[in-house]
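Just scan my protein:

. . .
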Amino acid sequence: LHMGKTMKEDLTVVVKYIEQLYPPEFNVFSTYAELYHNYFASQAKKNAESHLEDKDIYLLLSWVHSIYLKYMRKDPVLAKELEKVKLGSLLPSSLSKELEKKYLDSEEVRIR
């Protein structure tokens, strides 16, 4: 969550102050957003492949599927810019489904 907050703050600075210093063809915002996204994706994958407790799986999946881009898209400064950038998912679909299954199986056992 801290990394996401930092990304949001940094991208806001890029939109407000840095992007205007470069010609449009430099795609400054896209470059920053893609670099952050690639870093987050590598960290999310690394975390997903480690041994996670159920609550950690839940938090990771919540971050990947709900919080990550929605959090930034609610920001009026970033929303318009993020629409132009195709960032994709933080986790490969197969890994995400594997984590979902593991979490749901564990919850089913716990509830029984």
